[in-house]
Amino acid sequence: MKVFRSPYNPIIGPKDVKPSRKDFEVIGVFNAGVARFRDEVILLLRVAERPISKRADVTLAAIYDVTKDDIVLKEFLKNDLENDFSDPRLIIKPAETYLTSISHLRLARSKDGINFEIEEVCTIAPTNDYETFGIEDPRISLIDGIYYINYVGVCPFGVTTSLASTNDFKSFQRHGVIFCPENKDVVIFPERIDGKYYALHRPVSPLFKKQEIWIAESPDLSCWGNHRRLMGPRAGFWDETKVGAGAIPFKIEQGWLEIYHGADQDSRYCLGAVLTDAKQPWKVIARTEKPIFEPQTDYECDGFFGNVVFSCGLLYEDDKLKVYYGAADTAICYAELPLEEVLENLNLSHPPGI
Q1: Model-level pTM?
Q2: Pick the CATH number of 4-346 from 1.10.760.10, 1.10.3720.10, 2.115.10.20, 2.40.10.120
């Protein structure tokens, strides 16, 4: 693949975003929802912050307390053998798990798609029991003039997906949880098909350890049913341990094109493509056997969680995929992929092997 990476990458990093509190530091800004609104490119950034500990022997976790309508801090001693810090994203105790950071969504605007003005306050922040550990990874679908934003909520009950909407990116209406635990990587198709809304989602099977892409339909964007498995990981391939939807699908002459992510045994995250039928989106036509985009640069290989490229949004314009992606769970970057080469990698003459 002839991938063009912006010479200005990363285009947004932690140093570019003001913390929401004086006692917090921004450690990551990544996995942004993307939309074009009037003459601007809109990014809805996932901003990950952590509280600054004044003690070298203590790690702090930030938790939204519903009763106080505020974020409170919890201490964890680094020398306590019950506290497992082996994953930099988590604090694992025998009966509980906490996150080392708490995320909210922050709006950024740009005329040229590269240089962004970032708002200094939270755009969408945790507000309920299902978001106490933060909200993450937004996707934006424009349907009938309304921008629908689905995002991940994390709490002790599990990982959910909620829905919000806006028509001006100034005020936002929340519609509650639309997929219950454990479910994330939801992308909503940007138009109705035969009068129904469709969404890709990623339920997790705790018994069989499956992390696969499913498809569901809805009459109203709130009640989802007729769930069907779309595709799963492939042994021996780049996406052998897990797959999940990435950017919002977009329609081309051949059907619906979805850019998804997959991970291998070493937790290396790459992007691939899958093509589904235009009128029956639960039918896979073709799927890339090799990644169309993979971590190669220093800023993609080294960071808070390295060897990761992960996209929640792109713009399909001028026969190009203009991809905004999270690099190493640390920063936002920009790349362009020619549609023609993506289609060549789909290998339409062979069965997809779903």
Answers
A1: 0.95
A2: 2.115.10.20
